[in-house]
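Key idea: predict the complex, not the pieces.
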Amino acid sequence: MTPEFPDGADLPPDELSRRELGELLGAAGAALSLAGCIHSPTETILPYAHHPGPITPGLPLFYATSMVLDGYATGLLVRSREGRPIKIEGNPEHPASLGAAGVFEQASILELYDSRRMRGLRRRDQPAGWNDLRRRFGVREGAPERADRGAGLAFLLEPTSSPLRRRLLERIALRFPESSVYAHAPTAGYGSRVAARAALGAALVPQHDFRDALRVLAVGSDFTASGPFHLRHARHFASTRRVSTPRDTMSRLYAVESVPTPTGSLADERLRARPSELALVLAAVAHELGAGSEALEAAADRLSPRQRELAAVAARDLDRHRGRGVVIAGEALDPAAHALAAWLNQRLDNVGSTVWYTEPALHLEGSPAQDLARLAREIDAGAVDTLVIAGGNPVYTAPSDVPFGELLERVEETICLAPYENETSTRCRWAIAAAHYLESWGDARAYDGTVSLVQPLIAPLCGGRTADELLAVFAGEESHDAHAMLRDLWLGGGDDGAGTRGERGGDRFWERALQAGLIEGTTLTRSAPVASLDAAVRLLEERLREREPPGLEIALRSDPTVHDGSFAGNRWLQELPDPVTKLTWGNAVLLSPRTASELAVGNGSMVEVETAGRAVRGPVFVLPGHADGALTLHLGHGRVAPFEPAAAFGFDAYALRPTAAPWVVPGATLRALAAGEMSARERRHHALASTQQHWRLEGRDLVLRQTLEELRARPDLAAAHRGPLPSFYGWEPDPSAAAHARDQWAMTIDLSVCTGCNACVIACQAENNIQVVGKEGVRKGREMHWIRIDRYLTGPPEEPVAVHQPMLCQHCERAPCEYVCPVFATTHSADGLNEMTYNRCVGTRFCSNNCPYKVRRFNWFDYSHGHDDTAALVWNPEVTVRERGVMEKCTYCVQRIRGAQIQARLEGDRPIADGEVVPACAQACPSRAIVFGSLTDPASEVSRSRQNPRLYSVLHELGTEPRTRYLVRLTHPHPELARPDARRPADAESTPR
Amino acid sequence: MSAIFPPWSTAAFRWVLVLVAALLLAVPIALMGWVRTPYVTGELVPIEQPVPFDHRHHVVDDGIDCRYCHLTVERSPTAGLPSTEVCMGCHSQIWNDSPLLEPVRQSFFESRPIAWQRVHRLPDFVFFNHAIHVAKGIGCESCHGRVDRMPRILQVVPLTMGWCLECHRDPVSHLRPREAITAMGWRPESDAAALRAVLAKRYQVSPSTDCSSCHR
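Result:
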């Protein structure tokens, strides 16, 4: 029989004819009756022939490495079992991670074992060898070099901070002085660089420290959930919002944004503004702070009264907290906004304390469109005969007015490095399989400059090469081994460009650096340049002079789950719900409720968005909290690569991206498509697959919210939602069982700091072998995530307040699921876990029906089958892979608990220390919203959280006594600002479908 | 009009009812019994190995401790099979031209593993940990039997869940001092019950019967 789910993707399993059903029933019956007669198959054990050093079969090893995204490194620790990496975790010593890991880092391991990866090297359609490439482009004895000194040679790179790559580029420049290097960065901003040169007089980038930031103004910036330092920012920002007694203080966040983001959902004061208005809000704040200029006043006048009011209040508030605030402008904002933010930070004395400037970590920054357009002009002029594309997928990510794909075919020699065959590689003469970073040697800098090492955990599975190895061929290096080049760079006395010599003590230094994953003392030096208000005003005047074409504004954004499209083939990420819309497998046209009703479209309406003669078609998703008169499109979907069926969902928003305005496209029109204009197939392709259908709380107390003032006035609000309830049965723990258990496990989730960023969801998926069900499965509500993040909206639909609530098995002490299981497959352990024993489960689903939290997941199909052997390598060997017909749910990572217990008992029956057992979700959480530990230790973090006045149980009135508790969502709004949602908020009027 | 059914049909019908009831009971009982037979559990089923490794000889004649080869048994979930290097530690000197050891030499020189056939097989949803059992005073012999008498390794216990639980519910009668963990045929010298009570206390033996102890 063919596998049921070849790609875990888009095969609706239920479209069976009656005949097929009969056949299957017959086959199943025969298989069942035969199954009992078959002996268990014999299994072989393959011990090592030669034992590799540190490996102990059965025990994991951790290695430090780094993942590079958009040129910036994030330090990671990778768990390896018997030589195969199985789980990616954050490196606590690394400044960009601090122990947390984001969704891209964690999900990237799935691609390592993807059998659809490109293999080796090909020239046209023929397989080739690495030496063919070297003979063709490397230095050869006796062969003459190019006569044009490299004038026809061009390199197209991804943005990079790698000191090794910098050295290679320098050597290429020595060998081919006339060659040119371009960088294409589809997700990069450009405003901050233009602003820095104009207002600061140098190409500097701002660095922010949120640890001491009591007042934060974030304009178009999702600093806690995207960007190279978001894990660090989220951790630090959350640390200013942990209120454990009513006397504590907390920071206040003003967020101004056009589309709701995770950061915006944390805001104490959130303001909607169209993308083009974001800079004006900063201008109004500057105006309030006494910057005298007509342009600033003119800009402020363009704002609505509410926008002006917030700008005024925020300005005064920031001014009262001089030196302890941060003004941060989003990467996609224009130069005027960045220049104003720089001036504001200076005016507010933040520079030097919470804000400082450094040289950019990237030595090759690139731009989302302009660099590629420049290269396109060169190709068009016939000036390029050899083009090396060392990473990225420029044919897909090119702006719409650059026909890069066609131009590529006019270049004589094209060499492309790609992990999969993609839109670019299929058009290139040479295609080289890119090594996964877990197979590579390399280096890169974190956002603050820290040099981070990329260390392989496994030999290249598909014979891949790194960009450095490819560039080494053109640099004429004798060795093209990245490890040797890296050692030579860092130990050989070379200059890394930051003035730090390589004479560092040889192998011991190197071992230490590899162990830590970074090289100490390589952060970039701080500077505090003077920001010029005049320059900012000039940039703003330029902005104000621009004519605003009528129509809607399009804000383009890199996708929170597939980024620029490079993760589109990753099934975990495709099925990961967008933190805001909860959409999976594709994108949508995001509109505010008012704009949607003006345009007479609703959720799921198929529309055509058109600008400058280009159009895309897709479904509408009405998003309360979105700015009016604008729409947001996520990049990265609608890939055409036919070999990645998972990648094809959604529409390609790059088709609307012009070179001149890569992030905000004005003058768009939107038109609802009539019934006949879109085929049924296309409609099915674009159908919305959301994991949450209802957004209102309906007056139920699932999510408790309070302001800091209210907490001080009424610290006992949550008390009604915790504590003992009357019961017929009474509740006494079984003394014999409790005697066995030294620990009683519990979890507390702080809703005040949860951004809904999804790091926990992917961490859980990777740790617990959670399968993907595909778009059709999600549409039927069959997704398997053990932890979901519910997002509730309260308040009026225009200005809703969004709250994220991670929902997972609550491990009820009186668990409704346990009472109804007819076969005792779900039981309670002595240490307070609600256990799920898969091998006992017969699939009645009674437990799921009786679970008030709806956290149990059922295996409707054998989702784990149908994968090839390579794909199975990613599975955690410490967790059972579930089969069809069994229920599953969060176990509090019981494999980690039992592992720690065994380890503690092996080490002389010592007690388990607090923090020794960390479930995958808590470990990955950047803001440390999840704490886990034992209640028997009164000093443990979770025991202390139980004393918090904000503690409550969800659905407390049911008397389930959950072990997972929540802390009331706390905000700190400004008392002077009018509330659009008065006291008891009416629920938002919006529900998709 | 004559009766359609003769008089004896009542009796026959009753017998059929009894028989159906009996079958309804007997079939599940028989199946439950059958899965516990050695035929299903794999007890005492001889398994052909690529190298006719003789535990009896290595344990008794050579006096090699179990942990010399199964070297991770005290710290890892798996006891570990020795790498070919360990075999060649001795067999590069003795029996180094024996044709029986050809697969071992081949493995060593070609760096290819020897494909041993698994004898003690637990289902994939069971997570057994050797280290904790050894640390708590459960000897090799308790589960693996008299390996010193086995020319060829056999599974001598049923390895069913019921068998595991028997010991998890009453571990004390299976305890032995850690010094004698690998000893074969170990018997307490004097008062067994008293010694085991002391050991249970010393090793803090308190096995769990929670499902998640083994099923995760």
